[in-house]
Amino acid sequence: MTDNAAAPSLPRTIFRVVAFAEALSWLGLLIGMYFKWIADAGEGGVKVFGPIHGTIFVAYVLVSLWVSRAYRWDAKTTVLALASAIPPFCTVVFERWAERTGRLGAVAPAAQAQPAS
Asked: pLDDT digits over 24-42, tens only?
């Protein structure tokens, strides 16, 4: 039997996936920029990952605004969520912080072991 209270909600799940995807797209873009500017191997990586990152960035902003309403975040939390999309990989840091502090729904209590009779 499953406990629906502990099941992740749709906004939470979508936010977590998009936050991780945004960080991965940053990685792809940074690799593309390395090959363009440092290795002088052309701009193919930037041409590929630039639009991917831009699309996921916009999706992250929209999902963050949706989740901020769904979970009734205050202005500070919402601004932190949006600002975390600017430095590379910070969306994952923000997502983990929001999860840990209960901003992505109630933190499920740890299952307590029942003593054997």
From this structure: 999 999 999 998 888 888 8
Nearest to 63, CA basis, from 24, 71, 37: 71
Distances (CA, A) of 101 to 73, 95, 96, 98: 12, 10, 9, 5
**Structural contact between residues 28 and 47, judged by C-beta atoms closer than 8 angstroms:** no
User: How many other CB atoms are there within 10 angstroms of residue 2's CB atom?
Assistant: 6
Give me the pLDDT at residue 2, please. 43
Distance CA 23, CA 20 (A): 5
Three-class secondary structure assignment of 30-98 = HHHHHHHHHCCCCCHHHHHHHHHHHHHHHHHHHHHHHHHHHCCCCHHHHHHHHHCCCCCCHHHHHHHHH
Phi, psi of 105 (to 5 degrees): 110, 170
